[in-house]
């Protein structure tokens, strides 16, 4: 067939079409997939050891089977499982208390004036510091323990708070002191994000009190409730260092959780199959509980069973009367003073000499000075500070460089739907995986590579452990950007950078939240350094725990080390807390 046009002659040779039609598929550029390669390599630091642990758990002398899981019939393991489930109930209780405290501060905004800083400080410090603080408060001798002294003055005699059964009160108090500020802040951020027109509509219809709670606050806060529940429950199931520092050694087996039971098995025997089975059981419990909060990581909207009317603009959240504001200030101040009191006890104890802190309470005026800080410095405190700063900074930098492009790839990188879902599922699994699932194989691999005691190796492990949560949070922030803006940016010649520039306002708070939380978590870490680190790294928390092993004789240096260890994360959290909360709730707010 020939074609002549504008002096140009074309000859087209055709042939008969045979065979069935084949549907066309758009070609996907391979470039964006390279964004996820660093995350894949870093995740292998966890995935490979996890695989080794799973294989070891099911490998028996006769092949593969469930023989190693017979360890769960041991009395100690059964007690540990029961205690782990008890911690789950504690976590749910903290979530409920935190919700109603946030609701109180929402109804009486003046409460937040004094309460917010007091709630943030405990969340900034490590669980190890919280445990040391509450052990000081509940010291069994009335000459040193605040609670014991008050109880003895009121009732004449005092129970042994760190004795059988009662040590649970100390543990739960320390855990709640650490996490309640996080719960209250996120719920309060969700309440503040409720649109004013919705509030005015309910007010115009006369919906108040419990009806308003059921119709408005609870449905709209379900996404944030999922995030909060997921975080706190996993922290409760993973509790480890709190028990080590609070409960006396003679009673620690009564307080054992699965993580501690796993550690005792690894240090007392060489049956790797049994210890691997304990790690798999711990992971199964954490993963099952985590299903409660996974949906909270997704953006969703909830319908309310109310009729929308055109409200009076003067309605809504009226400015409270002066008497109500004063009442709120009094409540906030009272709760803040109670909440900050443990931190005050810790600081004043640190300002006593080691001898005075060992025999007298914080209220004693004798022995004041900085000799406890000098004693803490003599055991390597400041060297540990430098080591921890290097590890935390390196881990945070590596995490940010890898997490941002990976989160963008999952959110807007054009991945096929099934690939994106698979990637998200893997990150969710890794986010809830306990350290015990990869600690032993990873430690052996680091030792075999001659990197035992390497700060860089420990920083990479921390970055790998923090990567799943960072990607989930940043992906949620990316996905919450207006699709129209993203579509417009994708039409340009520099598509990937244009999308990042377009949605920077959306993901910037999440980026700051990831950076602050990663730095603080690595700074406060105990379990990763304890289970994986060699003697050359000397993280700060290990120095603190080493001193706390002789708690009665070294309470002054322990308090001094705890104060020094808490300054950096406390200042960091107080400086960026509002942005951190915004970043944590991006994509989950109503």
TrEMBL record:
<feature type="transmembrane region" description="Helical">
    <location>
        <begin position="158"/>
        <end position="180"/>
    </location>
</feature>
<feature type="transmembrane region" description="Helical">
    <location>
        <begin position="389"/>
        <end position="411"/>
    </location>
</feature>
<dbReference type="InterPro" id="IPR050809">
    <property type="entry name" value="UgpAE/MalFG_permease"/>
</dbReference>
<feature type="transmembrane region" description="Helical">
    <location>
        <begin position="118"/>
        <end position="138"/>
    </location>
</feature>
<dbReference type="GO" id="GO:0005886">
    <property type="term" value="C:plasma membrane"/>
</dbReference>
<feature type="domain" description="ABC transmembrane type-1">
    <location>
        <begin position="385"/>
        <end position="576"/>
    </location>
</feature>
<keyword id="KW-0472">Membrane</keyword>
<keyword id="KW-1133">Transmembrane helix</keyword>
<feature type="transmembrane region" description="Helical">
    <location>
        <begin position="558"/>
        <end position="577"/>
    </location>
</feature>
<feature type="transmembrane region" description="Helical">
    <location>
        <begin position="33"/>
        <end position="58"/>
    </location>
</feature>
<feature type="transmembrane region" description="Helical">
    <location>
        <begin position="85"/>
        <end position="106"/>
    </location>
</feature>
<feature type="transmembrane region" description="Helical">
    <location>
        <begin position="220"/>
        <end position="247"/>
    </location>
</feature>
<protein>
    <submittedName>
        <fullName>Alpha-glucoside transport system permease protein</fullName>
    </submittedName>
</protein>
<dbReference type="InterPro" id="IPR035906">
    <property type="entry name" value="MetI-like_sf"/>
</dbReference>
<comment type="similarity">
    <text>Belongs to the binding-protein-dependent transport system permease family.</text>
</comment>
<keyword id="KW-0813">Transport</keyword>
<keyword id="KW-0812">Transmembrane</keyword>
<keyword id="KW-1003">Cell membrane</keyword>
<feature type="domain" description="ABC transmembrane type-1">
    <location>
        <begin position="80"/>
        <end position="293"/>
    </location>
</feature>
<dbReference type="GO" id="GO:0055085">
    <property type="term" value="P:transmembrane transport"/>
</dbReference>
<dbReference type="Pfam" id="PF00528">
    <property type="entry name" value="BPD_transp_1"/>
</dbReference>
<feature type="transmembrane region" description="Helical">
    <location>
        <begin position="423"/>
        <end position="440"/>
    </location>
</feature>
<dbReference type="InterPro" id="IPR000515">
    <property type="entry name" value="MetI-like"/>
</dbReference>
<feature type="transmembrane region" description="Helical">
    <location>
        <begin position="327"/>
        <end position="350"/>
    </location>
</feature>
<feature type="transmembrane region" description="Helical">
    <location>
        <begin position="362"/>
        <end position="382"/>
    </location>
</feature>
<feature type="transmembrane region" description="Helical">
    <location>
        <begin position="276"/>
        <end position="294"/>
    </location>
</feature>
């Amino acid at each position: 067939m020939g074609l002549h046009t504008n002096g140009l002659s074309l000859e087209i040779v055709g042939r008969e079409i045979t065979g069935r039609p084949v549907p066309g598929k758009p070609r996907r550029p391979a470039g964006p997939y390279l964004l996820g390669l660093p995350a894949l390599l870093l995740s292998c630091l966890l995935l490979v050891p996890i695989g080794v642990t799973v294989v070891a758990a099911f490998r028996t002398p006769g092949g593969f089977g469930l023989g190693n899981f017979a360890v769960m019939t041991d009395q100690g393991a059964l007690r540990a499982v029961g205690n782990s489930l008890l911690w789950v109930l504690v976590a749910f209780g903290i979530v409920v208390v935190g919700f109603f405290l946030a609701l109180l501060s929402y109804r009486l905004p003046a409460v937040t004036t004094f309460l917010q800083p007091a709630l943030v400080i405990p969340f900034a410090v490590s669980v190890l510091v919280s445990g040391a603080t509450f052990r000081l408060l509940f010291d069994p001798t009335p000459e040193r323990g605040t609670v014991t002294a008050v109880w003895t003055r009121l009732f004449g005699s005092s129970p042994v708070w760190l004795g059988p059964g009662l040590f649970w009160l100390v543990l739960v108090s320390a855990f709640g002191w650490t996490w309640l500020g996080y719960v209250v802040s996120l719920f309060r951020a969700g309440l503040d994000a409720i649109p004013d027109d919705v509030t005015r509509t309910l007010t115009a219809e006369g919906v108040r009190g419990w009806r308003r709670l059921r119709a408005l606050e609870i449905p709209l806060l379900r996404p944030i409730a999922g995030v909060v529940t997921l975080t706190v429950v996993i922290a409760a199931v993973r509790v480890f260092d709190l028990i080590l520092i609070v409960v006396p050694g003679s009673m620690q087996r009564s307080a054992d959780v699965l993580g501690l039971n796993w550690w005792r098995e690894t240090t007392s025997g060489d049956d790797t199959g049994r210890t691997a089975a304990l790690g798999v059981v711990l992971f199964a419990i954490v993963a099952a509980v985590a299903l409660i909060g996974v949906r909270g990581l997704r953006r969703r909207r909830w319908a309310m069973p109310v009729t929308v009317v055109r409200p009076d603009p003067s309605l809504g959240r009226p400015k409270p009367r002066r008497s109500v504001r004063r009442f709120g200030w009094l409540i906030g101040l009272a709760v803040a003073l109670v909440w900050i009191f443990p931190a005050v006890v810790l600081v004043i104890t640190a300002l006593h000499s080691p001898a005075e802190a060992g025999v007298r309470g914080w209220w004693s005026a004798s022995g004041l000075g900085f000799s406890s800080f000098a004693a803490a410095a003599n055991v390597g405190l400041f060297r540990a500070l430098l080591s921890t700063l290097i590890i935390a900074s390196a881990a945070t930098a590596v995490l940010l460089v890898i997490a941002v492009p990976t989160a963008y790839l999952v959110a807007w990188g054009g991945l096929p739907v099934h690939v994106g879902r698979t990637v998200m599922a893997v990150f969710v699994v890794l986010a809830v995986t306990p350290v015990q699932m990869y600690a032993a194989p990873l430690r052996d691999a680091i030792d075999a590579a001659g990197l035992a005691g390497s700060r860089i190796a420990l920083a990479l492990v921390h970055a790998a452990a923090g990567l799943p949560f960072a990607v989930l949070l940043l992906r949620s922030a990316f996905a919450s950007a207006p699709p129209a803006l993203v579509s417009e940016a994708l039409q340009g010649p520099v598509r990937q950078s244009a999308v990042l520039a377009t949605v920077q306002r959306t993901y910037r708070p999440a980026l700051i939240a990831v950076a602050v939380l990663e730095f603080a978590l690595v700074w406060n870490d105990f379990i990763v350094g304890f289970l994986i680190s060699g003697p050359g790294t000397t993280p700060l928390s290990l120095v603190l725990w080493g001193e706390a092993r002789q708690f009665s004789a070294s309470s002054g240096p322990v308090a001094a080390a705890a104060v020094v260890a808490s300054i950096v994360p406390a200042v960091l959290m107080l400086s960026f807390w509002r942005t951190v909360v915004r970043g944590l709730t991006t994509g989950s707010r109503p």
